[in-house]
Design a protein that fits this description.
The chain is an alpha/beta fold. It has 7 helices and 10 strands. Strands 5-8-7-6-9 form a 5-stranded mixed barrel. β6, α3 and β7 (183-189) form a beta-alpha-beta unit. α2 packs across α5. The chain is globular.
C-alpha cells in the first residue's frame, strides 16, 4: 500500500481521507506537518482526537529520528487542524507517493491550507541559530517530482503545475504581521540522507539558496497540484548539523491562516557546531580555488600571452 503507483495513489489518498473524516467526525480546514525537532510542539496544542498513522490506508510510521507517528485533530480558533506529528522522507526508500500521501489525503479530507515545518541548514551567517524563517521559493535538487507518471483524475490539474507562486505571499504577510522578525529565504531541497559537502554548500550559495534540507519540496509540489496554497517555515541551523531542533511551534500563524491556503514553516536548531566558513566575507565570490588552480590559470595566461606576442611580431614583419 505504501509503494502505490501513480495510477492508484490518488485512489489510496481518497480511501485514507474517508477513514480520517470518519474517525474525526468531519472535515478539516488546515493540515500542519511537524518536521524534525517540532514533535514537542504537539504537547502545546490540545488534541480532541488522535489516531496512529498505521491505522490509515497508505501511511507508514516515519523512521527518521524526532518524527512521531500519529495524526491529531486540533481546534485552533475557528479552524479545525489536522496535526501530523512526523513526515516520510525520500531517503527512507518508500517512494515519492508515500512522501506526499499526507498532503493528498488532507486535501481530499477538506484541507485547503497546509503548514509544513522542518529543521533546515542555513547558508546565511547573519541569521541567528534557532531563528524561524519563511520560505519564499525553492530549488528542487532531489531529482524527483510527485507528478511523474499517469495524469491525476479529474478535476485535478494536469502534470504541468504552475509553481510561480508556490508559497503564498498573502500568508507570508499574515505571518509577518504576527512576528515582524521573521525572515524569508529560498530553500534548496536535496535527496539526503547524507548532509551536504562544502562544495555543494558553495554551489547552493551561488544558485541563490538561503536554506538547505531534505524534505518539504515534494509536499509543496503535490499540495499545489491539489489546489492548495502554501506557507512554509524553517528553523535555522548552521552547517554542519550538530543537533536537531528542539522548540515549540508557534501557533499564532495558524490562527491567522484561512481556508483554501497552503502554509509551510521551517525551523533551525538551537545549537550547532562551528559553521563551515565562519570567517566568510559575503562581499567576496563564494567559490574558492586551490593553489593548484591558480597555478594552472597563471600558466594558461602566460601561454596565451606568448602566443599573442608572436602574432604581434608576425604582423610587424
Amino acid at each position: 500500500m505504501v509503494n502505490a503507483s501513480a495510477s492508484n495513489a490518488y485512489d489510496l489518498a481518497k480511501q485514507a481521507a474517508e477513514v480520517v473524516v470518519k474517525k474525526f467526525a468531519g472535515t478539516h480546514d488546515v493540515l500542519a506537518v511537524l518536521g524534525s525537532g517540532w514533535a514537542h510542539a504537539a504537547s502545546v496544542l490540545e488534541a480532541t482526537n488522535e489516531i496512529g498513522v498505521t491505522e490509515i490506508p497508505g501511511f507508514i510510521k516515519p523512521s527518521a529520528i524526532g518524527h512521531g507517528g500519529s495524526l491529531k485533530s486540533v481546534a485552533v480558533g475557528k479552524s479545525r487542524v489536522l496535526l501530523l506529528t512526523g513526515r516520510t522522507h525520500l531517503y527512507e526508500g518508500h517512494g515519492v507517493n508515500a512522501v506526499v500521501h499526507a498532503v493528498r489525503t488532507a486535501a481530499f479530507a477538506g484541507c485547503k491550507t497546509v503548514v509544513l515545518t522542518n529543521a533546515a541548514g542555513c547558508l546565511r551567517e547573519d541569521w541567528g541559530v534557532g531563528a524561524t524563517a519563511l520560505i519564499s521559493d525553492h530549488i528542487n535538487l532531489t531529482g524527483f517530482s510527485p507528478l511523474t507518471g499517469a495524469d491525476a483524475p479529474a478535476p485535478l490539474h494536469g502534470r504541468f503545475v504552475d509553481l510561480t507562486d508556490a508559497y503564498s505571499s498573502r500568508l507570508r504577510t499574515i505571518a509577518k504581521s504576527v512576528d515582524p522578525t521573521l525572515r524569508e529565504g529560498v530553500y534548496m531541497g536535496f535527496h539526503g540522507p547524507h548532509f551536504e559537502t562544502p562544495a555543494e554548500i558553495r554551489a547552493a550559495r551561488v544558485w541563490g539558496a538561503d536554506l538547505v534540507g531534505m524534505s518539504t519540496v515534494m509536499e509543496t509540489i503535490a499540495a499545489r497540484h491539489m489546489g492548495s496554497k502554501f506557507l512554509r517555515c524553517h528553523w535555522r541551523r548552521i552547517l554542519p548539523l550538530a543537533s536537531r531542533a528542539r522548540n515549540f511551534l508557534v501557533t499564532k500563524s495558524w490562527q491567522s491562516a484561512k481556508p483554501r491556503q497552503l502554509a509551510s514553516v521551517v525551523c533551525l536548531p538551537t545549537s550547532s557546531k562551528k559553521s563551515i566558513s565562519k570567517k566568510t566575507n559575503h562581499n567576496v565570490e563564494p567559490c574558492r580555488r586551490s593553489h593548484r588552480d591558480y597555478q594552472r590559470t597563471n600558466r594558461d595566461r602566460r601561454q596565451i600571452g606568448h602566443g599573442y606576442r608572436k602574432r604581434l611580431a608576425g604582423c610587424r614583419r
